[in-house]
Amino acid sequence: MFRTHTSSPRKGRNTGRRSPLATTALIAAGLLFTGGAYAAFSTTTASAETSHAATAATVEEGKKLFDANCASCHGLALEGTDAAPSLIGVGAASVDFQVGTGRMPLQQQGPQAPQKPPQFTEEQTLALAKYVATTGPGPGIPDEDLLHGDGDAANGAELFRINCAMCHNVAGAGGALTEGKYAPPLTGVDPVYIYEAMVTGPQNMPVFNDANLTPEDKRDIITALKFTEENSTVGGNALGSLGPVAEGLFIWIFGLGTIVALTVWITARSN
Question: Which E.C. number(s) belong to this protein (predicted)?
């Protein structure tokens, strides 16, 4: 007779079944990941749409300001007229400089546009700059990290003497040019306007693009100018920092005047 042996199942054998809790956890993780990704995408899209809408609104506001205040001279399409040049391709930096320093709108024709209190607010000036920038490529408003005055002052002073001092004076006090024109003083000028002047070349100033002076070089020049402005002269009264002309005039008026007055006084007493 044959005996039939019935084998009992082994203890600890893996049946291949997953716990219901593991399935629930996987579903929850998938939903959480999908929801988070959708929320991040929606936020990014909404921010981009808001930024685009704000930029479009700013440009539209700039166009309205331009049509009302600038188009009579520069043309409705910025093409220029006999009274004023074209603004196509001048860039946002040129508009920010000219309007922000009050040189534009021009009050009257002359050898050059003088600086005066600005007619527009900072927001309006930025709107005008953005509108003009849409008509063609040009220099943009510089980044803030180039305007803090934390560059190499020694290098900036050397570059200023080489490229700028012949018009603006070695101390940045300004100077006279031909035909009633002049290089304005650079003391008290906002760094952003100094930078924008270098990249746009307003009035009689040449353009210093990045091939002539790198952005770091321009930062160093601003650093040198601010260092000179903030540190008093060690030689006493600077007399406007206008150099030997001012010093000679001082000697003639006060020195020679004192001698003449003393001579008259001595003569009067002897008589």
Answer: 7.1.1.8
